[in-house]
Amino acid sequence: MIEFKSVDKFYGHNHILKSINLSIKHNEKVVIIGPSGSGKSTVLRCINRLEKIESGDILFNGQSILKQKQSQLSTEIGMVFQKFHLFPHLTVVQNVMEAPTWVKKMNKVQARELAASLLEKVGMGDKLNSYPSQLSGGQQQRVAIARSLAMQPKLMLFDEPTSALDPELVGEVLQVIKQLAVEGMSMALVTHEMGFAREVADRVIFMDKGQIIETGSPEEVLSNPKEERTRLFLSRILH
Q1: Looking at the domain assignment, is residue 60 inside a domain?
Q2: pTM surpassing 0.85?
């Protein structure tokens, strides 16, 4: 589904991704962990061309993303960020309707039906006519997930979706993502929630300083890491 081929990414003189080779299969749930600045989020942002790579290639369903239209990629790859980026002047249902209406040219009746069903799915069916400012952070993030799902993507990217939330709101967002995983959604997720990674991931990737240090099942990477650098990282966050 996704394949990185010797991908390099620089910010000025800073070498952010160093010859990354990585694949994500259809229906696979891949969790990327690692310290701040290791390149985790940059990997996700390169997949949907929010970041430009300097060398190498990224294939999506066998075709280079560099040759695909950005508008086409945005319909097939959904992304949920740390910040919710909801339109403050639109209601919850209008936020979710926006992309199908404008990008997919769906009529407003269909778009509203789709939005309402997705909001129901993420536990926000009773908030259709609320505005983002009336919602908690966890509720806003669930709306943001529904908004990404409205494009009916083949792959979902989650960039630390709970890091901006108060601790008591984290569970409600993770529960929605967990349900998507159970339903077979292909996803790549950057998170510091190790219990969630253990439960949901088919594969865990540990990154440090722009390189993939270790990859394997949750059991292999989180419980029995081979690399000293992985062990050190986990000892600091699993104490």
Answers
A1: no
A2: yes
